[in-house]
Amino acid sequence: MRIRLALALAAVLSLSAFAPAMAESGGWADAPDKVPRAPRGDRFKNLDFLFEALKAAPDADSAKLVEGRIWALWIASGSDTADLLMTRVKTATDEKDTALALQLLDALIDLKPDYIEAWNRRATIHFANKDYAKSVADIRQVLAREPRHFGALTGLGVIMQELGEEKLALEAFRRALAVNPHLQKVPEFVKSLTEKVEGRDI
Question: Which long-range contacts (CB under 8 A, 24 or more apart) does 40-45 make?
Answer without folding.
Answer: 43/73
